[in-house]
């Protein structure tokens, strides 16, 4: 069995990124490629994917792979992930022109003209959606195992874990008491009861069960799955995509809070369970309570989500 080199894994990732860069360039060239319109409108999903999902997918299909042998699959997958469409909308608008009346007086007159808008739409279906369609159930199970264990190789992309503990904040947890009235909500009380069991346990990259330990998304997925939700095992960004997006004002204990840029990954990079009053519990190193408005978290705070059963 050939040993799959990290160079090949990284290479395949770079090739996929290159396809994404070309797509981005193509969208930016729209006015040059389609000149002569009054207006250009864009409806664009973000161009991004999770490098681990891609690696796990390729590993599931090919076991070990070389960069050259996966080129066709990369292009095919890319085409399924991204759908670019364009269309033209013609509006009848009116402009005022001055017409000389028979009496020799200028009269303002409304004259119709075509106002043409060129629309560009990009749908990013999400890499994992495509992968799910491509794999049969046995392969999907393997894929999920790779997702959990390949996570044990964070150094593959962007060199290693973020500095200062796994959630990047580098701050110790705080002792926090949940206000009693929050626990009168039985749904939240059940979620919190499960979440609280693991406070103080160490962070494990890719970990998704109490036996292995947890990373941030593994922890949240576990807690919710134990409480009758079906979120599977996904990343922080995957949880963001599964949740209804709400404002901080609407967020209540038991909702999720999301952060961007805590390490170099597209989309949401960290998630925690919101406890109200600006507090969360999340898998840092160790699993701990934190204030989402502390200086570190505040600058990465990206949104709130609500999962439904």
Characteristics:
309 residues; 6-stranded antiparallel beta sheet; 3-stranded mixed beta sheet
Q: What is the residue-mean pLDDT, rounded to a whole number?
A: 85
The rounded Rg comes to: 25 Å
Strand order of the largest sheet: 6-11-7-8-9-10
Uncertain residue segments: 158-166
Which outline best applies? flat
Describe the structure.
The structure is a single chain. The strands form three sheets. A six-stranded antiparallel β-sheet has the order 6-11-7-8-9-10. A three-stranded mixed β-sheet has the order 1-3-2. It has a two-stranded antiparallel ribbon with strand order 4-5. The longest helix is centred in the first third of the chain and has 23 residues, at 6-28. The radius of gyration is 25 Å and the shape is flat. β4 (208-209) and β5 form a beta hairpin. The chain has 309 residues and is an alpha+beta fold. It has ten helices and eleven strands.
Brief digest:
The protein is built from ten helices and eleven strands. It is α+β, with helices and mostly antiparallel strands and 309 residues long.
Reconstruct the topology from this structure.
Elements: H1 6-28, H2 30-33, E1 39-44, H3 51-62, H4 71-81, E2 82-100, E3 106-124, H5 127-134, H6 137-150, H7 186-196, E4 208-209, E5 213-214, H8 216-225, H9 236-242, E6 244-246, E7 256-260, E8 268-276, E9 279-283, E10 287-291, H10 295-300, E11 301-306
Parallel strand pairs: 1-3
Antiparallel strand pairs: 2-3, 4-5, 6-11, 7-8, 7-11, 8-9, 9-10
Helix pairs in contact: 1-4, 3-6, 4-5, 7-8
């Amino acid at each position: 069995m050939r040993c799959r080199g990290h160079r090949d894994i990284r290479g395949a990732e770079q090739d996929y990124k290159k396809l994404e860069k070309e797509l981005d360039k193509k969208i930016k060239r729209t006015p040059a490629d389609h000149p002569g319109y009054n207006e250009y409108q864009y409806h664009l999903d973000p161009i991004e994917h999770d490098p681990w999902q891609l690696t796990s997918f390729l590993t599931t299909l090919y076991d070990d792979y070389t960069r050259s042998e996966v080129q066709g699959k990369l292009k095919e997958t890319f085409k399924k992930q991204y759908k670019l469409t364009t269309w033209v909308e013609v509006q009848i608008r009116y402009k005022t022109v001055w017409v000389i009346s028979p009496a020799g007086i200028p009269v303002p007159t409304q004259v119709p003209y075509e106002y043409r808008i060129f629309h560009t739409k990009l749908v990013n279906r999400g890499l994992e959606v495509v992968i799910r369609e491509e794999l049969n159930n046995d392969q999907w199970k393997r894929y999920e195992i790779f997702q959990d264990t390949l996570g044990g190789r964070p150094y593959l992309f962007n060199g290693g874990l973020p500095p200062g503990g796994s959630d990047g904040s580098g701050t110790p947890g705080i002792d926090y008491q949940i206000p009693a009235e929050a626990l009168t909500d039985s749904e939240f009380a059940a979620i919190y009861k499960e979440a609280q069991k693991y406070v103080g346990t160490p962070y494990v990259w890719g970990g998704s069960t109490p036996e292995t330990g947890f990373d941030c998304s593994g922890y949240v997925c576990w807690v919710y799955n134990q409480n009758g939700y079906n979120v599977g095992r996904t990343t922080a960004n995957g949880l963001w995509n599964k949740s209804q997006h709400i404002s901080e004002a609407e967020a209540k204990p038991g909702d999720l809070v999301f952060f961007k840029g805590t390490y170099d990954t597209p989309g949401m990079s960290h998630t925690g369970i919101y406890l109200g009053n600006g507090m969360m519990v999340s898998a840092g190193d160790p699993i701990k309570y934190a204030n989402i408005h502390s200086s570190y978290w505040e600058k990465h705070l990206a949104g709130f989500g609500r999962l439904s059963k």
